[in-house]
Amino acid sequence: MAKSQLPDAQLVDKYVAGDENALAILIDRHQSKIYGYIYSKVSDRDVTEDIFQETFFKVIHTLKSKKFYSEEGKFLSWVLRIASNLIIDKFRNDKKMPLKRDTEEFSIFSNIKDTSLDIEKTLIKSQVDIDLKKIIEKLPHDQKEVIMMRYYSDMSFKEIADFTGVSVNTTLGRMRYAITNLRKVIEKNKIYLPS
Amino acid sequence: MAKLYSKRKLAQKKMLPKKETIRLILQYSCALNIVKIGNVNFDFIAN
Hints:
- The complex is a heterodimer.
- Helices cover about 70% and strands about 0% of the residues of chain A.
- Chain A is mostly helical.
- The longest helix of chain A has 23 residues, at about 20-40.
- The model of chain A has no long low-confidence stretch (mean pLDDT about 85).
- Chain B has helices at about 1-5, 20-30, and strands at about 30-35, 40-45.
- Chain B has a two-stranded antiparallel sheet with strand order 1-2.
C-alpha cells in the first residue's frame, strides 16, 4: 500500500519511529479541515496561521516525547482538540489584553494622545499654583492648615483631625469655610484660574 | 435558471495554510529531538 493511503494511526506510528515524511502526509491530509476549523472560530487569517502552526508544534512535541495521544486512531479529533484549546487560550489572552489593528477606518494613533503638558500649559499651571498659594496664605490659620494638609500633604480628614486635635466634623467644617473664603477672594479680586 | 445558480461557485475554495507555515512545521519536526533522561524530557533543536 502506498504510504499516502495508510490510515492515520499507522502514519503516526511511522512518524514516532522516525519517518518525517509521515507527518507531511498527515498534515497534507488534514490541513484543510484543521485550518478551516480554526478560521471558523477566529475569523482572522494571520491568527489562524499562528494557531495552526502552534497546534502542530504541540502535536510534534507530544508525539516525539512518546507520550502518544489518548484517542488512538482518532488523530484528527485529537489535533482539533489541541487547536480548540489554543483558540480558547487566544480568546482569554485577548480579553486580558485586547488587540486593536490599524485599518483604513481606524488608526491606532487617533486613540493615543500625549497627555503631558506642553510648555505653555506648564507655565500657566505654575503661575496658577503661585497665585493659589498667595491666596491660601491669607486664610485664617486653622483653615489654611486644613487646606495645606489635604491638598499638599495628601492627608485624609481623619488624619488631619488627629493631627490638629479636633473632630473630623470640625475639620470638614474648616475645609468648607476655607473653600468658601477662597472663592470669595478669587471673585473679589477677579483672579482667573484656568482649570 | 440552472445557469444562474451554477454560474458562480458560492462556496469558497478549500482553506489552506500558507506553504511557508507547512515548511516551518516540517522543519521544526526535523530539528526537534527529545531525549528522555530519567524522568525528565530534554528538548534539543538542531540548527
